[in-house]
Amino acid sequence: MNKITGLILLTFFLTSCDLTTEENKHIKWFDQTKNEILNQSNLTADSTFVTLSDDSVITWTHNLFKGQEFSKEGKIKEKLRIKSYFSKSADFELRQEICDNGLVAFEGILFKDKFYGLSKWKDCQDRIQMEGIRFEDEKVGIWKIYNDKGQVNEETDYGHYKSVDLFPKIK
User: Fold this and answer.
1) What share of the chain is helix, strand, coil (3-state, %, to 5)?
2) In the chain, how many domains are there?
3) Residue-wise pLDDT tens digits, 125-151
4) Is 19 inside a domain boundary?
5) Is residue 150 a part of any domain in this protein?
6) pTM reported for the whole predicted model
7) Strand pairing partners for 152?
8) Residue 74 Cα to chain centre, angstroms
9) Tens of pLDDT, residues 40-54
10) Phi first, then psi: what are they for 73, rounded to 5°?
């Protein structure tokens, strides 16, 4: 093997490790933030109120503790479709879309009403369909679309990679 080929292989290997490490950091940020939101919203409501979406399709039940909303559920035609959990500061939201069978079809984290971090879509048999990273609502990095067997079928690189260090931190 000549020096140029060796250098190219070494560069490829090191770059692959960096992307994998950064991807792992994003997964860790998502998991830690999700767990903290769920921990902070693990309360029993002392009051609730109901609202309708602007188009009157979704009936929202808002759960409060000491006047602060910690979760809400959205129903369409009496079927649970959306769950949201909020941090104590109300800056963070874990949003989930729900299948008829109760499985989570979508999951993502918002900070001040903008999506950050990993967003995942699954079918109602719990098979991954698509996933990718968002930063201030925009798709960044590599997004993956999966086939029915859970194998990557398509990848799109949106660029604009963002270090996980730029992501908001929950307290």
Assistant:
1) 25, 45, 30
2) 1
3) 999 999 999 999 999 999 999 999 999
4) yes
5) yes
6) 0.85
7) 146
8) 18
9) 999 999 999 999 999
10) -130, 135
